[in-house]
Hints:
Distance between the termini: 17 Å
Order of helices and strands: EEE
Strand order of the largest sheet: 1-2-3
Helix content: under 10%
Structural class: mainly beta
Largest sheet: 3 strands, antiparallel
Radius of gyration: 13 Å
Amino acid sequence: MDNRVTHQFISGSGSEITSVKHGIAYSHFEASQYGFMYFALRPDELLVQCIGHEGGVLYQHIV
């Protein structure tokens, strides 16, 4: 398989809120909010959700 892709999910959970750069070409989502990441692994896909501190889904992506 020559067309493999590496996905990176980076979270600053447990840190203080700091500003983030917007418009990074390789980034799908940026936010300066408290929250966490949720991962659900299924037989044929990976669901990733960014959950805000009030419980709402800020972003989700399926790989």
